[in-house]
Amino acid sequence: MNEAVVRQAAAMLLCYPDQAFYERLPLIESALAEQEPTPLDAFCKHARETGELDLGAEYVRTFDLKRRRALHLTYYTDGDTRRRGHALARIKEIYAACGWRLDPGELPDHLAVVLEFAARGDAVQGMRLLAAFQPAVELLRAALHDCGSAYAAVLDAVAATLPPSDEARREAARMAAAGPPVEDVGLDPFGGKVALGMPMAMGAKR
């Protein structure tokens, strides 16, 4: 299995299914046809059979913060707190140090963005980011299976590119029980940097 191909395909399949998504779908299927079978094959078939309007509605129903099925990974670790701003800034620093530029309007913690960075940007730093967020990936994956979403196949493929981790599964269970963090009343937002458990930025590779 070429992990970069799987991650790039998963990144594209986790984008909103508009016309551009369906224009790219044959290219995704062609790239996957050269790999060993993965759960992405089943999702591509589902996307093709469902169609743009219905898959768009499914996407909106599926990825909802209130249902704990968010594609923005820092939501699981930092919720809607001021800490999340620090986390987003830290990820941007990592991208910038590797010469990676975000498109306007993209948030750096979106799973599709992280996957594309790992596939096409810096493989080492991308893998470190995915490892740091592996509990969030596992939590989202479990939530998608619980609701019977076809998108669970995409998360299964992503998880298969990561090392098996009992620790990540335990942390995902803890996060599921606790729910997203909430703002600490009276917390001084300028009291210093928050430890994010993310890799340190290294020199640019592109």
Task: Tell me the structural class.
Answer: mainly alpha
How many runs of DSSP E, i.e. beta strands? Answer: 0
Our estimate of the beta-strand percent is: under 5%
* Anisotropy-based shape: globular
Number of separate helices: 11
Mean pLDDT: 83
CA(first)-CA(last) distance: 24 Å
Q: Please, how many domains?
A: 1
Low-confidence stretches: 184-206
H/E series, N to C?
HHHHHHHHHHH
Report the sheet with the most strands, covering strand number, pairing sense and barrel closure: none
**Assembly classification:** single chain
Radius of gyration, taken over Cα atoms and rounded to an integer in Å: 17 Å
Q: Summed up, what is this model?
A:
The chain has 206 residues and is an all-alpha fold. Helix content is 61%, strand content 0%. It has 11 helices and no strands.
